[in-house]
Amino acid sequence: MVLVTAVLIGLILGLGRAWINKQNYRVYDLRAPGLVLLAFIPQFLIFFLPATRSRIPDRTASILFISSLIILIAFSIFNIRKTSFWPVTAGFLLNAGVILLNGGWMPISAAMVQKLFPAAEPSWKVGERLGFSKDILLNPEMTRLWFLSDRFTLPDWIHYRVAFSAGDLLIFIGIVWLLWSLGGKAKDKIKENNNE
Amino acid sequence: MKTLSRNVVLFSGKMSSKVRLFVFIFTLVLFVLAAGAPMCTGSVGG
User: Angle at the Cα of A76 (from A71 to A77), degrees rounded to 5?
Assistant: First the structure.
């Protein structure tokens, strides 16, 4: 959920920038927005909806998850002419790479899970999917591209336990950048969309 | 009549920009939710 805060932070920064510049906060039309809905539906079924997520086998869920990622990458590429979509696309490619190389799920180490849930008894087995999440428990030495897995956490003073990847970080930066850029002066917005 | 039609145009213009902003933000929220592939029982995942 940490990426949702990117939208909030980006909006606050963008609206603040527009206010300082005495400009309207103007949005532009994203290309192929329907792809986002198309990508979200399978994820809603495999991660969120209790009635379906418990019935869908892990293998099918993994295929749906990867399909969803491919659709999101396609959406990012459709919008790549906006400079802020470069880190977003790079983040998706990194996440998709590590997921594809590790059996269709995002690897996370036992140490990281223990750090996130210190009170929980370590009942998970290596190679097992963590509940209804996108993560699979793998030792770092058996993880391909371990450095791209969910291995980062927020600083302790934030008091929000979450693990995220380098790809997530790039997506976060891109979203904040996108929303911030919309509050800029007209010439900056033209520069942001100079490839349109 | 002229004023009324001008007001209608202005109002629809304002509404249109708000609708565009809403659609834009809604798309981005869905996008980041899918990008983070959230976990329902905890906080693992971006």
Answer: 95
CA distance A68 to A65: 5
Nearest CA-CA distance, residue A44 and chain B, Å: 9
The pTM of the whole model exceeds 0.90: no
pLDDT values of chain A reduced to their tens digit, one per residue, 196 residues: 678 889 999 999 999 999 998 888 888 889 999 999 999 999 999 988 889 999 999 999 999 999 999 999 999 999 999 999 999 999 999 999 999 999 899 999 988 888 888 777 667 788 888 888 889 999 999 899 999 999 898 888 888 888 889 999 999 999 999 999 998 876 666 666 555 4
Inter-chain contact B36–A75, Cβ cutoff 8 Å? no
Cross-strand partners of A164:
A152
Residue A1 touches partner B, C-beta closer than 8 Å: yes
